[in-house]
Amino acid sequence: MKFGKEFAAQMVQEWRDAYMDYNSLKTVLKDIVRIRQRSVSTPVMAASTSKSSLKRKVSLYRAFSGLTSRHRSSPRKNEDEVILVHAVEQQEGADGHYQTMFLMSSDTGGEYELVFFRRLDDEFNKVLNFYKMKVQEVMDEANELTKQMDALIAVRINVDKPMVKFHFHGADLENLASNERKPGRQHMDVIQEIEMSAEGNLEEQNQNEIFENSGDNYRKGKGQKVSIQGSRPTSLDILDHVQINNVPPETPVSTLKGILMSTNSATSFGKKELRKAEELMTQAFTEFYRKLQILKSYCFLNLLAFSKIMKKYDKITSRNASKTYMAMVDKSYLGNSDEITRLMERVEATFIKHFANGNHRKGMKILRPKARRERHRITFSLGFFSGCSLALVVATVVLIHARNLLKSQGRTQYMDNMFPLYSLFGFIVLHMLMYSANIYFWRRYRVNYSFIFGFKQGTELGYRQVCLLSSVLAVLALVGVISNLDMEMDERTRSFGALTELVPLGLLTVVVLIIFCPFNIIYRSSRFILIQSAFHCLCAPLYKVTLQDFFLADQLTSQVQAFRSLEFYVCYYGWGDFKIRSNKCQGSGVYNSFYFVVAIVPYWMRFLQSLRRLIEEKDAMHGYNGLKYFSILVAVAMRTTHDLQKGMIWKIMAAVSSGVATIIATYWDIVIDWGLLRRDSKNPWLRDKLLVSNRSVYFVAMALNVVLRLAWMQSVLGFRDAPFLHRQALIAIVACLEIIRRGIWNFFRLENEHLNNVGKYRAFKSVPLPFHHDNDEDRNI
Asked: How far, in Å, CA of 333 to CA of 93, rounded?
C-alpha cells in the first residue's frame, strides 16, 4: 500500500483537516516533475551528459578521503546547504512560526519549488498549532482528573474508614489529634496518597510501594491496622468543598422523583455514591487514555508524512533538503515534546493502582481494548447460509409453481392467515440486510459509526456479522415456509393441523429466546445494547435521549407493519381458531383498537424524545422536529381510521394529512437530516463536504426518498385493492419499500452527523465527572 493511502486510512477522520495535506503537496511535486521534463531537450541532455562524465573523470584523480572519516566535514557541505534550503524560525508569535527560505528559485522549475516550500510551511505550522492546542487541552483535563482523584480517594477513605496507624514525629502528633473526627478513635480517617513520580528517587518509590500495599490491605481487610512510614496525613476538609455532580436520572422512577419531589441539596458520601463515582472515573480515565493514544498517533503520522514528502522531494529534484528540514522538525515542539508519552505512563500507573487493584494485565485490557478480529469462520458461515437462503427461495418459488398454489382454493385463506405470520421475518431480514449494507459503506467512506452510536471499542458488529445473522434468520423462516407447505399438501401429514400452524409461532419463540438469552453467545453485548435502547424508547421521555436511542426509534417508525404482524400473532394464536386456519381478528373491536395504537406508538415515542431534547438542550430545532413527528402521527391515525371505517370524509382527511406530512418529512430528511440542498455550497445544491465523490449519488438518493415517501399514499388512493395482487402482498411490498427508504436515509444521516463532528474536531465522547469543586482555585488537598 502506498503511503498516501495508508496515511489516509490511519487518520482520525474527525481531525482530517488538521493533518498535513499530503496529496496537495504531491500535486506540487508532480508540477515540478512536469516542468523539468518540458525544459529538458536533446542538446541540453547531451551537454549535461558530457559535463557529468568530465566531472566523473576528474573525480578519479582527487585525494582519497579514507574509509573511516564518516564525520569529517566536506568542503562542499556548507555550499550544498546554502544552495538548497535554509529553515528560519520566526520569533513573532508566542506559539512559534516556521518559514523556509529557498535559495534556488532561479533554477528551472524553481518557482514551483518555492510554492512547494511555502505550502509545506503552512502545513507544518497548521499541524504544530493544532498539536499544541490539543496538548494544552489534555493537560487541563489531566489537572481536572487530578482533582477528581483527590476527591475520590477522600470519599473512599470516608466510606471504608481503614484502620491505619501512622509513625511520624512529635510535631505531627498535634495534627493527628486535630484530624481525628471522633474522640477516642485509634484509626485515621485521612491518608495523603503519595503518587510515584517518573523522576522520583528510590526512597519515594519505596514509600509508594508501602502505601500501595496498605491501600490493598484496607480495601481487602476490614479494620486491619497498617503501618505507614513517612506518610503525612491530611484532613478530609476536601469533602467540605466538593459536591456530587447531578448525574442525569437513569431510571424512570428517578426521573419522576426529580420532577415531583424537590431535590435535597445536602451532600452525602455513601457506598452508593462511591460506587457511582468509581464507575464514572473509570470511564473518564479510559476515554482520556484513548485521547492520549490518538494524539500520540497524530504526532507520529504527521512526522512520518513530513519525512516521506521531503524524501520524495529529494528524489524528484536530486537535492538534499530533507536533512535540513527534518532537523528543524525534530527540534520543534511537534518532534521534541514528550508530554503525551509521560502522561500516558502516568495514567497507566494510576489506573492500574486505583481501578484494577494492581493487576497490570486487567488494567491494560480495559485501557487498550482489542479490536474485534475478523474470523474466517464468519466469512465461511456467511457464504454457506447465504447460499442456503437463495436455494430455499428458489425451492419455494418452484414448489408454488409446480403445485399451482396461486390458483388453488386455499390461496386466499393462506394469504389472510399464514402470510402475515411469515412476513414478519421478511421485514426483519430486509432491515438487517440494509443495516449491514450501511455498515459496509460507512466503513468504506470512513464514517466513524461506532463513535457516533457510542459503542464500546471492540464490541461493535461489522457488516459480515449482521449479514450472517440475517441470512440465518432467512434460512429458518424459509425452512418454516417450505415445511408448512409440505405438511399441508402431503396426505400423510394433513391430519396434524395443529402442528402445521404452530411452525411460525415456534420460530418466533426461538428468535425471542435468542434475543433475551443471558449467556455470552450470539453477540450478547450487542443484543443487550439493542434491548436497552428499545427499553429507553418505550419509556420515553423518562430517559435522557442519546443518538443511539432516537436512531433506533427512527428505525421502529419504519417497522409499523412488523408490529401489526406481532399483534396478529397474539390474535391468531390467542383468540383465533388456528387449527383450521381461521381468525376473526378484523371483526374484533379490541384488535382494531390495538391496530390503531400500534401504528402510532413509534411516532409517539419520537415525538416525546423530541420534547425531552427540547427541554434539556433549549434548541428550537427539536421542537420543530417534534411537530414533524406529530404531523406524521396525525396522518397515520387518519390513514388507519380510513382503513378500518372507510368513507369519503376519512379518505379526504387521510389524503390531506398524508400530503402535508409527506412534504414536511421529505424536506426535513433532505435539508436537516442530510444537510443537502444548500444554495451557497461549493457543490451546487448539495453541501460543501461530501464523502461520496460521485455527486449524482446524492441527487438519486433525494429522488428515491421523495418517491418512496409517496408509497404510503397508496392506502389512501385505493391501490390496496389491486386485482393482480392480494391485499396482504401489497401491504408487504409497501412496507419493504419503506424499509429500503430507511436504509438509504441511514447512510446519509450518519454521513451528515460525521461531517458535523469533523467540522468541530469532535472525536471523543464527553464523560461526566463525579465531583464538582466549589471554586476553581488550586488547593493543596
From this structure: 14
- How far is residue 222's CA from residue 234's CA, in Å, rounded to a whole number? 21
Residue 457 CA from chain centroid, whole number: 8
What is the C-alpha to C-alpha distance for residues 763 and 287, in angstroms, rounded to an integer?
11
Omega prior to 541 cis, within 30 of 0: yes
Q: What are the angstrom distances between the C-alpha of 129 and each of 20, 133, 134, 312?
A: 12, 6, 9, 25
Q: Rounded to an integer, what distance in angstroms lies between the CA atom of residue 124 and that of residue 129?
A: 9
Tens digits of per-residue pLDDT, 680-703? 889 989 998 899 989 999 999 999
In this structure, what is the dihedral angle of CA atoms 350, 355, 358, 359, given to the nearest 10 degrees?
Answer: -120
Give the separation between CA 306 and CA 326, rounded to whole angstroms: 8
Q: Which residues contact 142 (CB under 8 A, 6 or more apart)?
A: 288, 343
Which amino acid is present at 266?
A
CA 120 to CA 328: how far, in whole Å?
Answer: 13
d(CA 176, CA 235) in angstroms, rounded, equals 9
For residue 693, CA distances in Å to 284, 594, 683, 697 come to: 37, 47, 11, 9
Express each pLDDT in 128-160 by its tens digit: 999 999 999 999 999 999 988 888 888 888 887
Gap between the Cα atoms of 267 and 276, Å rounded = 14
β-pair type (226-229, 164-167): parallel
- Distance, in Å, from the CA atom of 117 to the CA atom of 479, rounded to the nearest integer, reads 67
The residue among 442, 508, 522 whose CA lies nearest residue 692 is 442
**What is the spatial distance between Cα 196 and Cα 653, in angstroms, rounded to a whole number?**
74
pLDDT at 702: 95
Q: Return d(Cα 739, Cα 213) in angstroms, integer.
A: 59
- Tens of pLDDT, residue by residue over 579-590, are 777 788 877 888
Cell (9 digits) for 44? 541540453
Measured CA to CA, the distance from residue 142 to residue 172 in angstroms comes to 31
Residue 203's Cβ-count burial label (10 Å; 0-12, 13-18, 19+) is exposed
- Looking at residue 588, what DSSP letter applies? -
